[in-house]
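Researcher: I'd like a structural prediction for the single chain below. Treat it as a standalone chain; there are no partners to consider.
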Amino acid sequence: MGIFELAAELGKTLKNDARLVRLEAARVAYEADADVAKLTMEYELQQRAIQEEAMKEERDQAIIDRIKERLDALYEQIVATPVYTELEAAQNEVNDLMTQVNNTITFHITGEEPSSCTHNCATCGGCH
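Model: Treating it as a single chain, here is the predicted structure.
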């Protein structure tokens, strides 16, 4: 079996993993949530409004500040919703899985465990 056939098999196997199934369900629930859709629509409108105001020759800083405050409030409302927190948790779990998969592949290619070395000794907890 060639590299791309193996990659396709890995992809199919991953797609059926409980973590990816959870992520897909969370994504569907997030996209279907009417409250989040309203908040997101208003967030996008506010972003356009702030861009338009910022592009004007004579900007009104008070308007920009009010729009920023509203954007911050909308953002906080969106990320506090249960469907968002579930989506974020599921995405983080999948990200961890993919890191583990990539580390396993890297190990089998190089024979070395991937490290988190940044080559900046200030971030180091000790040499490997």
